[in-house]
Amino acid sequence: MADAAAVRALIREARRKRGGVRGAMVCVAIGAACLWAAFYPLAWAPLAWVALVPLVLLVRIPASTRRMYAVLYAGGLAFWLAALQWMRLGDVRMYPAWVLLAAYLAVYFPLFVLAARGLHHVVRLPVVLAVPLSWVGWEFVRAHVLTGFAWYQLGHSQHSWTTLIQVSDLVGAYGVSFVVALLAAAAGQCVPASLLHRCGLLGERPKEPTVAGMPAAELYGLGAVRPAVGSAVFALAVLGAVCAYGVARRAGVVFQPGPRVALIQGNFRSSLKHDPEEWGRIYRTHEALTGLAVRYQPDLIVWPETMFRWPLRQVETGVNDTELLALGGPGVSDYREDWIRAWRDTTVPGTLAELSQKAGAELLIGIERHVAGGDRIRRYNSAVFVTPQGGIVGAYDKIHRVIFGEYVPLKDALPFLQALSPFPPDWGLEAGAAPKAFASKAEEARWIPIICFEDTVPHLVRRYLSDVAEVSGDRRCLVNLTNDGWFAGSSEQEQHLVTAAFRCVENRVPMIRAVNTGISAIIDGDGVVREPEVVLDGDAWMHGGRDDASIGLRDPRTGRWRKNANLVLVGSVPLDARSSPYQRWGDWFAEVCCFAAVCGVLCMLPPLERLLGRHACRVR
After folding, report:
1. Which band of pLDDT confidence, cut at 50, 70 and 90, is reported for residue 429?
2. How far apart (Å, rounded) are the C-alpha atoms in residues 172 and 62?
3. Does domain 256-399+434-577 have CATH number 3.60.110.10?
4. What integer pLDDT is reported at residue 616 of this predicted model?
5. Burial 450-462, CB ≥16 within 10 A → b, else e
6. pLDDT, average across residues 524-529
7. How many C-beta atoms lie closer than 10 Å to residue 232's C-beta?
8. Where are the domains of the chain?
């Protein structure tokens, strides 16, 4: 009995010993590098399936290595700095915002491992469940905290595996992330304990003869072959079920052709967009591209976000000239007549109405809208709907604003935060009140505009569609107006496009995207970017070429989507009559994962850890 007790004591002591920092550094470096390569610009999607495997090893070991969580944070910071490097391209003043956002997002790397360790070592869930629950849980948190950042979710790397991503209409893109993390966890569990020991992730073996020759798996409680094989079989069965679901959901689906749309893609860097001397050239280019589209008789023509540069000024009903002057403050007293004339001027709505009449089509135009009324002048990032018969008949004001790009939080209490924005101190946009749906002529479709990064936020798009469900029926179409001219042809443009495609699968609704500098696209309810009927090369036409030659959406020499080019895309909207469980039930699955992840972290707090007897359990 004494010998058995001594052996158990030696085993407990071995499991408490901590591995060296070098092994953790290697694991985190490999994991962060593979994760970065899985997304654009490389988009090596298979690497996503192994990117978490090195981190799974840090979950399995009985005791964390020295400075493991600091190493995880450093690896997360390196990943996010590399992934988000496009943020700095818009303006030199965006460098601090880029670094601060990366520093915040890096926190989720150590949180992921900490929560997974709590679920595995304390709650005693198998690794194959603890890892995906923790990963998806923190993806969900990241999509909500600080207005939400739902980019670079693990599942987004699999955008080209159309069959796999169909599960998004059940549980959102979080479901795809769960499957990828599940397979990585199963693979990580199959790594033998002897390799973990050679990598320095485990403490030194006891030198006592009674346990010196004991296999590492038994000594450190890392499980045997049979449970690892069982986890692999389970993970592969889940993958097979998800793929079978995807095949079933796509079988026999016929997208009904809806209204014909023309997407106008200008090519203007945002540094030019804010130069008033360039406004005329921007307008003339978009007007000319619109003229190219007219011969194809589109029902709707879409201009990108803020590409009609003159603001639409509107005065609320009942506001007289005296009240209008008061809203401008004391500085307008010296040019009061010019102030009143500018606000009462009808040139902008008249120009838009005339453009719609000439085109013989409805327009959705990205524009800044200034509204005078109440106690202040409010500025919105808007999309106005224009018809040939009625001129401007409605406007949607962007609700989900970009932090430091469209507003600065707490800038009155913390003025130094203004330095993180490329805009002057008096700049700031108001949030819109509600989503809108505009009826196409002949009631063929309902246009639901979303602006800029709103198409990357899953719960936001779902809520918009739910709010307009009564008037939209099953003939809804999302219209994304975006200005990606900030990012100088970087990987942001591809990543933005594939992230938006998941909104289509989640809600079984098509989307059309008109994007300054690209990538403009028509996306169906399966998340597939469809080849338009016509893609006109505006650059070739401007340089004396033909104005009716259609090119492909992808460059045949490189296989990449066309961007940083003046283009016109014409095609029919692929209407989707299918229903979406995700649209009905929302993020219940991700919320369960979030609850599990938070519980995992709480279980690692010393009082709960001791209460649940972490050191007394055998590690799976």
Report:
1. confident
2. 33
3. yes
4. 41
5. bbbbbbbbbbbbb
6. 96
7. 17
8. 2-252+588-616, 256-399+434-577
